[in-house]
From TrEMBL, chain A:
The keyword Methyltransferase does not apply. Signal peptide: none annotated. Keywords: Membrane, Transmembrane, Transmembrane helix. It comes from Nocardioides vastitatis. It comes from the Bacteria. The chain crosses the membrane at residues 17-39, 59-79, 106-129, 149-171, 178-198, 230-249. This is ABC transporter permease.
From TrEMBL, chain B:
InterPro entries: AAA+_ATPase, ABC_transporter-like_ATP-bd, ABC_transporter-like_CS, P-loop_NTPase. PANTHER family: ABC TRANSPORTER, ATP-BINDING PROTEIN. One of its GO terms (molecular function) is ATP binding. This is ATP-binding cassette domain-containing protein. It holds the Pfam family ABC_tran. SMART domains: AAA. Keywords: ATP-binding, Nucleotide-binding, Transport.
Length: 254, 307
């Protein structure tokens, strides 16, 4: 299995997509961080003040929002690309037990997701520390429950890697998977979670489970506990991947 | 460990239907070790589908396919047993040929230097660091062949390897495969063009509309008696030597020193050497073979499916 994972990393690093999406995730994180700090003194802001522990946790948690969707997209492209570019033939010739290929991709993109999460946490730190210092706010990086937020962010982005692999394994079609992911994350889910009457079940949607995992709330919605959110989110990823490995990955490669 | 001594490749009762197309229909054949076997048939005959079933990429509706006595998925190190270059194998356009092969070296546990070796073997050394998106069709065929060679396998399965190669490339490919088989290994190579193959293969498996129409040696394929073109300054001595023990030798005189003789070229050659007759040319007849292939693979009126 380690050689399969090493092979997946080799595939990833021999094209440039990972780099562009990493730049994108870091840029998005920088944007979210700047908006949050920039509007922190706005009277209408929903976030807690940045000198409070809760406010600081919210600030660092934006790293997950910056990275998670793009990691899911990277992972989805990583698996659907095998079909789009017809490298599936070579891949399944080398590893005829196709479930092993799915498992190797799950492990690979979870690791990649964790690394993206770490990179985006550095972006928040690099922007927030000097900026907040000018406002007279000292951030203790190991205080105010921040280590728990870092763990939540890293776990969240890693699990989005699983989600992307799982959905891609299930759908196999690259355009459908990537468009589906983006439309769901940026259109469908915000609409659904914006309807208070649906709260009792929208808390189980991936986006809400993700927010639960990082324990950050920018809406009035009630979230699951962190570990529950992590389980729900990982459940989606593994469910898709399992169904994909059982059904669509078994289909003929012609 | 027991040693498997059966045929290199065996297909038994293979079936595959796509929608309402019967792509492969109760197909049984085997490929002996150490041979180059041509897998022949017109486009759409079911060659690619059959090869993909042999390799575990397409699931047969029925029947079995084994390589070295085992199903492909059951081979612990498949790349060391069989290497395959299939039609419609893809490459990521942004990845270089070298990077592509290194991925599969890593996955299969071969040293990375193996990728450079096989790229040199197929003559892609100078282009190996370029993105595959810029490769010609012929270069992609060579890269696919290089990938098949990575594990230094006992059996090579090649699907229409001559497609996209220029005439020089085809000659190169033939030499390459001949050398490969001469080292005792097995090659199964598909083609829809008999002429690409007839100078190369020992055995043929001929397919039409998913069914086996003929399996055997190339010589057995030609329907008429064998013949050869001979040029010799000693026509009468040759005929005398050939005529011994032959009831009615059929000879056509094409020129004062050129004959069309209805005997196998190998036989004529042997007799000429024994009788110390000087030969300037000895060419086995070919057109019967093409005719036979054409007849075997062309649809007959009575077989056409009712509309
Ligand atoms: N994935 C597929 N879906 C539907 N039909 C297919 C598919 N693959 C092959 N076929 C059909 O099966 C038949 C055999 O095709 P193929 O094995 O590619 O033949 P060959 O390689 O001899 O040209 C053809 O009629 C082809 O159209
Ligand atoms: Mg074909």
């Amino acid at each position: 299995m380690t050689s399969l994972i090493a092979g997946e990393f080799r595939k990833l690093f021999t094209t440039r997509l990972w780099l562009w999406l990493l730049v994108g995730a870091m840029g998005l994180t920088a944007l979210y961080t700047s908006l949050l700090i920039g509007f922190s003194e706005d009277p209408d802001t929903m976030t807690a003040p940045l000198h409070s522990p809760e406010g600081q946790r919210t600030l660092f948690a934006v790293a997950s929002g910056g990275a998670n969707t793009l990691v899911a997209v990277l992972a989805a492209i990583g698996i659907t690309g095998e079909f789009r570019h017809k490298t599936a033939t070579a891949t399944f010739l080398a590893t005829p037990r196709r479930g092993q290929v799915v498992a190797a991709k799950l492990a690979t993109y979870a690791l990649v997701g964790a690394a993206y999460g770490v990179a985006c946490l550095f972006v928040v730190t690099a922007i927030a520390m000097p900026w907040l210092a000018t406002k007279g706010i000292e951030v203790g990086l190991l205080d105010n429950g921040l280590p728990g937020t870092y763990a939540g962010v890293i776990a969240d982005v890693a699990i989005f890697g699983l989600l992307g692999v799982g959905l891609g394994a299930l759908l196999r079609n690259q355009v459908a998977t990537v468009v589906g992911l983006l439309v769901y994350r940026f259109v469908a889910e915000p609409i659904l979670t914006g309807i208070p009457a649906l709260d009792s079940w929208t808390t189980y949607l991936p986006g809400s489970a993700s927010a639960a995992l990082t324990q950050v709330s920018l809406t009035t919605q009630e979230y699951l506990r962190a570990w529950e959110g992590g389980l729900v989110l990982a459940g989606y990823g593994l469910l898709f991947a399992g169904a994909g490995a059982l059904f669509s990955m078994r289909r003929d490669i012609t | 460990m027991s040693v498997y001594i059966g045929p290199a490749i065996e297909a038994a009762g293979l079936n595959k239907t796509f929608g309402d197309v019967k792509a492969v229909d109760d197909l049984t054949f085997s490929v002996e070790r150490g041979t180059i076997t041509g897998f022949l048939g017109p486009n759409g005959a079911g060659k690619t589908t059959t090869l993909r079933m042999l390799l575990g990429l397409v699931a047969p509706d029925g029947g079995s396919a084994t390589i070295g006595g085992r199903r492909y998925v059951d081979l612990p190190e498949p790349g060391k047993v069989v290497g395959a270059a299939l039609e419609a194998t893809g490459f990521h356009p942004a990845r270089s040929g070298l990077s592509h092969l290194r991925v599969y070296c890593t996955v299969s546990g071969y040293p990375l230097a193996r990728a450079d070796e096989v790229l040199d073997d197929v003559g892609l050394g100078p282009a190996k660091r370029r993105a595959v998106g810029g490769y010609s069709l012929g270069m992609r065929q060579r890269l696919a062949l290089a990938a098949a060679l990575l594990g230094d396998p006992e059996v090579l399965i090649l699907d229409e390897p001559a497609n996209g190669l220029d005439p020089e490339g085809i000659v190169w490919m033939r030499r390459f495969l001949r050398r490969y088989a001469d080292s005792g290994r097995t090659v199964l190579v598909s083609s829809h063009v008999l002429t690409e193959m007839q100078q190369l293969v020992d055995q043929v498996v001929i397919l039409r509309r998913g069914r086996l129409v003929r399996q055997g040696s190339l010589a057995e394929l030609s329907s008429g008696p064998p013949w050869a073109l001979v040029k010799t300054p000693e026509v009468e001595r040759l005929l005398a030597a050939l005529g011994e023990g032959v009831a009615d030798l059929r000879v056509e005189r094409l020129a004062p020193d050129a004959l069309r003789i209805e005997l196998a070229a190998a036989h004529i050659g042997r007799v000429a050497v024994d009788a110390r007759v000087e030969l300037h040319e000895l060419t086995p007849g070919r057109d019967d073979l093409e005719q036979a292939f054409f007849e075997l693979t062309t649809e007959h009126e009575s077989e056409r499916e009712p509309a």
